[in-house]
Every structure is written in C-alpha cells, then in structure tokens.
# Entry
Amino acid sequence: MASVVKKIISTAKAPALGPYSQAVLVDRTMYIAGQIGLEPSTGQLVSGGAKEEAKQALKNMGEILKAAGCDYGNVVKTTVLMADMKDYNDINDVYKQFFKANFPARAAYQVAALPKGARVEIEAIAIQGPLQDASA
# Structure
C-alpha cells in the first residue's frame, strides 16, 4: 500500500499554547487546531469579548491557512466552541466576514471553559489545492 504524506504546518503569525501542531496536512486534508483570540505579538487574548476574540481567532486561522497555500475558501468544516451560547449571534456576525459564500459545514457548542479564559475557540478542516464547487 502506498504511503500518505503527513506534513506539519506552522507559522509564527498564529500563537500556539502547548505541545500540539497548529495544523497537520495529510495528503490534501488539513486539520487546523483550535484557535482562540490571541494577539500574536503579545500572546494575550484580545479585549472586547467574544466578537473580538472570534475575529482574532479567525485571523490566526487565516495565517495558518496561508502558511499551507490556502485561504478561507479551502475550509470545508469548522467547529466553534463558546463559553456562552448567548454569544452565538455575535460570533456569527464575525464568521460571515471570513466565510462569505458556500459556507463550510459547522458544529457549535457551549463548553465549560476554554484556554486562557477565552470566550471562543474555532477549529477547522480544509482541503489544500483548488476546489471545484458543485453545489446543487
């Protein structure tokens, strides 16, 4: 059986908080670790609550995508974790600024706690390379 290539994707433009990869590319499928709203230059959460944290988390995700030669259009699935489901609409408002059409599949959950007291964390799966939309 032929082997499949696994490549670790990393960038200094998106902070990581522990012993994990920012993303792992297996063949053309990229698994992006959960991103919280950390400012890359300080390693601290941005101020402004869930909306600003979601914006920064998605910017950080964009830097990881860019490091793999991708963009938000390559994302096919996301998982959004929230400290409070009351932030759902605010997070959606931000989310729509990054994913504009043919939205990825998504799950969204309220969780008991997130790293560093974050209000939101977003992880994703993306496909590297060109994608042809065949939506019905």
